[in-house]
Design brief:
Distance between the termini: 22 Å
Shape: globular
CATH topology of the largest domain: Nucleotidyltransferase, domain 5
Bound molecules: 5'-O-[(R)-(carboxyoxy)(hydroxy)phosphoryl]adenosine, zinc ion
Oligomer: single chain
CATH architecture of the largest domain: 2-Layer Sandwich
Order of helices and strands: EEEHHEHEHEEEHHHHEHEH
Structural class: alpha/beta
């Protein structure tokens, strides 16, 4: 089955073509970073306008890169929420029209469910059940995953998402938006023990997170030591990253132990972080747990992960109707399997 995936929930317009749920024939991502960079964050109205400009060329490029014709597509999967309403509407309306025009089924996909399924784009996917740490710009949560379409929330952030904390710290250091990649690169050159930031574990046996405290600690440090040199910036980045990574790694490994899972997954934009990838691989291996992290290109927002979920939902006979609408806030649909 060939599925066309479409993603437009935030500041990336993406389309991908997937065969049988995991074989990526093409994946095209048009980033809007340069559009939002001057504003230090995503400007929703600009985002939707850019999606409108990009959607047709991006979908055409995905179909061309896959070496197929539109007639060979069996179904369409599109992000339905959560995300920016205006942005979501562009991809969602396009998918409706494309499916209607070609007389094929289509299905709205939850963005978080798509991130979790991004590990199945890898040659060595996890075995069910496994625990998943979803770390992105908008979300930080842990799930017990019992099938491609069934997720049981175990914990989530009570305030900032991990990626949001990265972005805010980067902004405080005057490093622009988005900040994750920049902080990651700086941290690699700094000494994580030079400036120790507190680790907000909350209850060490629970799975909720809180990242606004670390962000405030960095702000207080900068108030006391303004205008950091490049070396100081590297130490701040390293200290901040070490604090975030320690908490994330502790909680996901503990979740795997509590649920008796021998596999864990780390997904979402922050899963691209080198400090996190290294630490989780090291500590999980020591604990006898096998780690699954998507390739960097499938950590951030992309449409291959959307098509991967779409394959399983369409195969199960599910499809969306023209009356359906997008949604902005997290709402995992109830699942029976
Ligand atoms: O999954 P994603 O592309 O979009 C959301 O669904 O939110 O995640 C974007 C987030 C941003 O906050 C960005 O700063 C962060 O992922 N990010 C990183 C890295 N690359 C992207 N955070 C830490 N280290 C990175 N290397
Ligand atoms: Zn995302």
């Amino acid at each position: 089955m060939i599925v066309l995936g479409i993603e437009s929930s935030c500041d990336e317009t993406a389309a991908a073509v997937i065969r049988d749920g995991s074989h990526v024939l093409s994946s095209v991502v048009a980033s809007q970073v340069s559009v939002h960079h001057p504003y230090g964050g995503v400007v929703p109205e600009l985002a939707s306008r850019k999606h409108i400009e990009a959607i047709v060329p991006v979908v055409n490029a995905a179909i061309a890169d896959a070496g197929i014709t539109p007639e060979q597509i069996d179904g369409v999967a599109v992000t339905q929420g959560p995300g920016l309403i205006g942005s979501l509407l562009v991809g969602f309306s396009f998918a409706k029209g494309f499916a209607y025009g070609h007389g094929i089924p289509w299905i709205g996909i939850d963005h978080l469910e798509a991130h979790i399924n991004s590990v199945f784009l890898e040659p060595n996917p996890p075995a069910f059940p496994f625990v998943a740490l979803l770390v992105s710009g908008g979300h930080t949560s842990i799930y017990l995953v019992t099938s491609h379409l069934a997720f049981h929330p175990m914990g989530q952030t009570r305030d900032d998402a991990a990626g949001e904390a990265y972005d805010k710290v980067a902004k405080m250091l005057g490093l622009g938006y988005p900040g994750g990649g920049v902080i990651d690169r700086l941290a690699a050159k700094g000494d994580p023990t030079k400036i120790a930031f507190t680790r907000p574990f909350l209850d060490k046996d629970q799975f909720d997170f809180s990242f606004s405290g670390i962000k405030s600690a960095v702000m207080r440090h900068l108030q006391l030591h303004p205008d950091p040199s490049q070396t100081d910036q590297q130490h701040i980045a390293a200290g901040f990253q070490a604090a975030v990574v320690d908490v994330l790694v502790h909680k996901i490994i503990n979740a795997a132990k509590v649920k008796g899972c021998s596999h864990l997954a780390v997904v979402g934009g922050v899963a691209a972080n080198h400090g996190l990838r290294n630490a989780i691989s090291h500590d999980a291996t020591t604990a006898g747990i096998s780690v699954h992290i998507p390739a960097i290109e499938f950590c951030g927002d992309n449409a291959a992960m959307v098509a991967a979920v779409g394959y399983h939902r369409l195969k199960a006979g599910q499809h969306s109707t023209m009356e359906e609408d997008v949604y902005s806030r997290v709402k995992f649909r109830p699942v029976a399997n």
